[in-house]
Amino acid sequence: MKTNIYKSLVLAATCLFAGCADLEEKPVGLLAPESLFNSEKDVETAIFGAYGWIASERLYGRQFVTSIMLRGDMVDIGDRGTPAERQQVNDFNMDDNNGMVRAYWPYWYQVVSAANAAIAGAESLELDETVSNQLIAEARFVRAFSYYHLVRVFGDIPYIDYFITDPEAVKDISKTSEAEVYQGILADFAFAKENLPDNQPNNVRSRPTKGTAAAYLASVNLTLEDYQKAYEEAKWVIDNKDRFGYELEADYQNLYRAEMADNIKEPIFSVDFLGQQNGSGGANDDIMPPMTGIRGADNLGWSVCVPSMAVYNTWDDRDYRKSVSFEHEALVGGVMVPYTEFQNTQRPHIAKYRRFPGNSNSDGRYSDNNYSAMRYAEVLLIAAEAAAEVNNGPTEEAVSLVNAIRERARNAAGQMNSFPEDVQSGMDKDSFIDLVLEERRIELSFEYKRWYDIKRRKMGDVVFKGANSLEPHENFDAAKDYLMPLPRIELDVNPNLAPQNPGY
Prior knowledge:
The protein is mainly alpha-helical. Helices cover 43% and strands 6% of the residues. It has helices spanning 33-36, 40-54, 63-71, 84-91, 99-124, 129-154, 178-195, 210-223, 227-239, 241-244, 288-292, 309-313, 320-325, 376-390, 396-409, 429-443, 450-456, 460-465, 488-493; strands at 76-77, 267-272, 305-306, 326-327, 329-332, 335-338, 349-350, 370-375, 411-412, 415-416. It is globular and about 60 Å long.
């Protein structure tokens, strides 16, 4: 059963950065958790409200995920008639007034605000300690999830881990160092691992569990290059997979069938959209299917986020994951045509979100998709990469973890193939790490992971300027482009957020 996340707006005013300019003219007064929360249900509703902000057009429905998708080397602009703000993100020539950043920055802080309010609300009530800690743990997970995205995109950011009772105070908030933000993220995920349940009601994956928190601890530590801790957390998830109900889905295609989302054990944390439903502020508005779909095809789309031909051509045709990930032909006027005859962008398009969006509009909008923000396959790859770093080379376990991914890839809708072959032992460390990063690129293609891999491994000069670049950008500047700019409007309203990120 799809989780019906309530779209709570009660807490939006507590930390709307983009609205700070109006505070002097229209003060909203003081807020207090005891006036907003009277029961466990009120706290839970606030947490569900945070999920509602994540499942919005500004974040996982389009703006945020499009920006980090375009930033990598797997997705290019298709239709160059699309707004300039998207082309600027893709082409590494954005400025501090970029419309995409202006759209999603305040929404992430609305998520944080709702989480902080829920924590304060739970603490203000006389609840059973176990119940209170579980509610607080879920809110802290959501807060950490938000900051984990923000810090990787912007670096030093305002870090707010308390309920703002006086909106006037927002104007005086300054930035926190990236290192301190990461410490807050790790503390929140650790608390969540300690206090969340093993499973959520109906085993939904759009709410976190102990296993979810551990998977994110593994990911954060991998990003911070604390490979021992990354390995330990990932291994803990793997060793307890039956406890949490995790396993690789047998057929890779099923991961991207909206109608099957609730019956798949691979997702560890999902962003859940509800088919044909939407609310104010872009709530529950999933626009990624048309953004990746084919303009002019009978199965409508807009040809905005389209891989380069090099991404398609260098992907081995024997890999079943390629056929799942791409649409290389489509019905146009009732006739099946190859991508060379597409009306707008003559390149294969992304199929993962447009092919089976479930209950949706004709162009796939307002889909029923559950987007896997973390799935079990990624945990296996985290463990493999971290183990190789810790042991200065691949262990037999690390090799077997990658081979588990490849074994699943050989199952083409029930027909077993011979490709991709198993990884053989005996590789040196650097070669194996390169192989794992390549496996991540393919296995997690178009799932908003590639840019973060490029950033954490500092691969920009290679992937955008190297001889084998899939999407060349000679203007990529490692001194600038690993971070995006803070929105200019935020610095205008609050000079304490200065300095701007380098180069903007």
